[in-house]
């Protein structure tokens, strides 16, 4: 029995920030994705924008001052690859536009900014994801066990419950 595709439409991402990480990891990775595409680039560097838009066949390029215009142009999600001190601002702006956010680590520069980001995304009923690929590496889990030995059960429950497959119809 063949699996039916739930939604053949690709997720349209705007990549916000075109620094080193975006160029060596984020943008090249999109070439391998079948369910997502780069729909727009957002940067203040016009020369860089032209070169990368041509290289990755991205039609729409915006300056940071045009971010809301970008978000209004059929963007499903943004991948924020900006300096850490800009994560909160650009996440909140995306939330106000009703756009999902994938944000590079660290989430923000303070606990207060993290709370602001979470509140904005919660209010907009959009998803906020932090691009941290090592959550379940053995060394990280061991550290969590050490740091949270007394409270591990509640921590593990919160992590596992937040990733509950029953909430996501695309999970098998």
Order of helices and strands: EHEHEHEHEHEHH
Question: Strand order of the main beta sheet, please?
Answer: 3-2-1-4-5-6
What is the helical fraction, as a range of percent? 40-55%
Number of strands: 6
Average predicted local confidence, pLDDT: 83
Radius of gyration of CA atoms, rounded to a whole number: 18 Å
Q: Helical stretch count?
A: 7
Structural class: alpha/beta
In terms of DSSP E residues, the strand content is 15-25%
Taking the sheet with the most strands, its summary is: 6 strands, parallel
Low-confidence stretches: 155-172
* Apparent shape: globular
How widely separated are the two ends?
14 Å
Task: Outline the structure in words.
- The protein has 172 residues and is α/β, with parallel strands linked by helices.
- Helices cover 41% and strands 17% of the residues.
- It is built from 7 helices and 6 strands.
- It has a 6-stranded parallel sheet, with helices on both faces.
- α1 (20-30) links the parallel β1 and β2 (36-42).
- α4 runs parallel beside α5 (111-124).
- The longest helix is centred in the C-terminal third of the chain and has 14 residues, at 111-124.
- The radius of gyration is 18 Å and the shape is globular.
- The model is unreliable at 155-172 (pLDDT under 50).
